[in-house]
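User: Sequence in, structure out. Go.
Assistant: Echoing your sequence, followed by the structure tokens.
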Amino acid sequence: MSTLQTSVADYPRPVLLPEDWTNGKTRRLELREPEVLKEYLEENSFLIPLISEASAKLVEYFGAETPQVLQVVYHPDDGSCELFLYVKPDLPVLEAIATLDRFDEDWWLDAMDRSNFQMVIKIGYE
């Protein structure tokens, strides 16, 4: 194998995030620490279509104006990382929880397997 072939094989292809994630006019997702996120998705690119699908489903349950945040969370206790998709509804807490429960029952619990349990969807309040 040539040096060129070896060096190309040693580096993953860069991830191109879907335009609707990053386009300022239609941006549906706030990307926290985008460089960390891109690196994580280079290693877990199978999550990209699921993120897009989950984000669209969240719009069905919470509305298009509800902010969503995508963030890689590092767990220092075991050194692992997980991808979190937070939905930040402007709803009373109990109503938001009930809506997320419906989302989980109707769609996420079946779709979660496709994430290899590396993605979590939660309500986020700051």
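User: And one key feature?
Assistant: The radius of gyration is 16 Å.
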